[in-house]
Amino acid sequence: MNSKPFNFFIAAALFIAVGNSACQHAKNTTEESTSVTADTSKKQISYHAGTQKPASWINDFEHIIDNNTIDTLTFLVNDFEEKTAVTIAVVTTATFSPFNSIEEYSEDLGNKWGIGLKEINNGMMVVVSATQRKVRIFTGLGMDQLLSDAAGIKIVNEQMLPSFQQGNYSVGITKGVKEIRRVLLLQAEK
Question: 0.85 exceeded by the pTM?
């Protein structure tokens, strides 16, 4: 039962790393260039879950993940959150409307949903759009020390994109989430 020492360590590391920061921080990018235009003056959210915290951290609005994979991902992120207090959310979406970019969409969604603990900003979100051909791993500022930009880019390039290029989003997203968990656990042990 080594989860208790890990919980203490990760909480301590995150408190030291960020103090009371509450902003979401976008990072770890790999994308093909695709521009999305939308009227950002609306600021009314058009994604399906609205502004309430979702019932699950796996939200397949684009319908690109099979049901068995949704169950697997739900177990993986819930288990990780229980053991570490780190929240990993997965969101698929066909559009970023009313926002102009995946960054704006993700930051707004993460803040409205309250992903991670506000005091230590330890949430992260994997956002995938097959339609827009974009994928990002976004982390709260409290996760910067545990998942670097380079590590996030490597996860996207090596674990996710090969499956995405074959049209297998379920496998790519699962590989990405598993690798995020592995990297965070390794970093927390240091």
Answer: no
